[in-house]
Design goal:
single chain, 3 helices
Length: 81
């Protein structure tokens, strides 16, 4: 599927869900909230699986990286002294 086809599919699901909640009053707010989030998560998952969206990288732990680099620098200082 193309990116647009996937987005259209999930937008239709979203619109149908919204109609059930806002117009028809056919589902509870809790069910709407849970399903609403699931629609967009499913779309994101499908876009990723189709290679149309990249998986976000986890944030780097810069403080730990700095500590590791500083420890390596100290080791090099000891070796060269």
């Amino acid at each position: 599927m193309t990116e647009n086809e996937i987005k259209v599919k999930y937008t239709e699901l979203h619109d149908s869900l919204s109609k059930k909640y806002y117009q028809d009053k056919a589902i509870s707010k809790e069910d709407f909230d849970a399903q609403h989030c699931q629609v967009w998560e499913d779309m994101k998952t499908e876009l990723i699986s189709e290679g149309l969206l990249s998986v976000p990288e986890t944030p780097r732990d810069l403080a730990t990286e700095i500590d590791i680099i500083n420890a390596e620098i100290e080791k090099l200082k000891e070796v060269s002294a």
